[in-house]
């Protein structure tokens, strides 16, 4: 059996890949899929590990993964786990400025998968990366849009950038995985492929042309409006978070701001058409 773990990172096309896999899972009945909402308990445990750094939390993470694997059929061609949240909390969350915990989490996954399925299991890990500056700005956008972060983009960059050493994280992850293969591709490269960012994952699954033809593309998830200055928009969302409004009032203000931004985006697209 082949097991493929696609663990993100956050903001590297993971949500789009999962949208495609959700649509494709019924067309690939000989594969088991563990997507974001299929393995929510594992995600929560990973988040606690990254925020608290408690060895007990790592044990709970391992137990959650082992329990999920126990429930899966053993006659499947393979298992695909695709969920960026198994990398822990997103940088910018409380006490989290980097992916320093990623090697620990992925090393623990390797240990549990081999224990549950046997050391002969064909285990593969896949990670997507992207240009660091654009990546950090995308993390800031996600945080101000979906959480209560109050930092401007410039302040967020200044706080996160010194700790955001992806080359080091990847080197430590390779060490933690030992002889288990790790494939890493840049989002800027996979976007140019005919199948888009999901192509490397389909390659690892070993799908032939007939199976691949059944997989339908998906619209990019978590897209941002292009008809406005994104830095100004992100800082405006942060300013709303800083106003001290109730949760409902904050969400309403952010929704209204986004409606205006998307209207401007629609005008720009109509003009370009």
Automatic annotation (TrEMBL):
InterPro entries (alphabetical): P-loop_NTPase (IPR027417)
Protein name per Swiss-Prot or TrEMBL: Sulfotransferase domain-containing protein
Organism in which the protein naturally occurs: Thioclava indica
